[in-house]
């Protein structure tokens, strides 16, 4: 089925590199469907926006390198999550970026709802700011418990990371396979990926889930 162009209206990434998914919850064969380029299962696509858009990260980076300078991935940040997958898509080792804000908590909760069938055996790491106001500590503990209940193994780390490059560096050093973070850093992320793609530090097992 041809995907509607308006699903991709906010993206700078060429439409032929994007794929829309309308699942209520990610199916167990999602990895195979994405990597094999099989047409996604479409449910009520005439009545709703996609719940997820995917793109092959190397192809997106090749497109970025054709630009004079790194381009943003979206000209206007939309509500539809974007999953950029590299050599293969895996949720074996997930890195959750929690910045202490309600939108960040919502991104993590929505990711878990969408991907729950595929993360039961995952190792999860949560990186949270060293200082969390008392008003947000209950939310932080709720997230930790939710991730703990949804994955096989969970660790919790306090770091004062301020740039998406810090999270990318941690993820590559620790061989994470998926970084869950906010679209607020997508322009900076594009620059980091643009800079390191195919270099000595490049790690081709890391995918990115970006949401608003």
> Which fold does the CATH topology refer to?
Rossmann fold
Please tell me how large the radius of gyration is: 17 Å
Contiguous runs where pLDDT drops below 50 for at least 5 residues: 1-5, 40-44
Query: What structural category characterises the helix and strand content?
Result: alpha/beta
Number of helices: 6
Widest sheet: strand order? 1-2-3-8-7-4-5-6
**Amino- and carboxy-terminal Cα gap:** 27 Å
Strand content: 15-25%
Number of domains: 1
Q: What's the oligomerization state?
A: single chain
Main sheet attributes: strand count, strand direction, barrel closure: 8 strands, mixed
The shape, in one word, is: globular
Helix content: 25-40%
- Output the helix-strand order: EHEHEEHEHEHEHE
Number of strands: 8
CATH class: Alpha Beta
How much is the average pLDDT? 87
In the CATH hierarchy, what is the architecture at level 2? 3-Layer(aba) Sandwich
Description:
The protein starts with 17 loop residues before the first strand and ends with a strand. It contains 6 helices and 8 strands, in the order βαβαββαβαβαβαβ. The protein has one domain (about 5-210): Rossmann fold. Helix content is about 30%, strand content about 20%. The protein has about 210 residues and is an alpha/beta fold. α3 links the parallel β4 (about 95) and β5 (about 125-130). The longest helix has 17 residues, at about 135-150. α3 packs parallel to α4 (about 135-150).
Question: Can you summarize this structure?
Answer:
With 212 residues, the protein is α/β, with parallel strands linked by helices. Helices cover 32% and strands 19% of the residues.
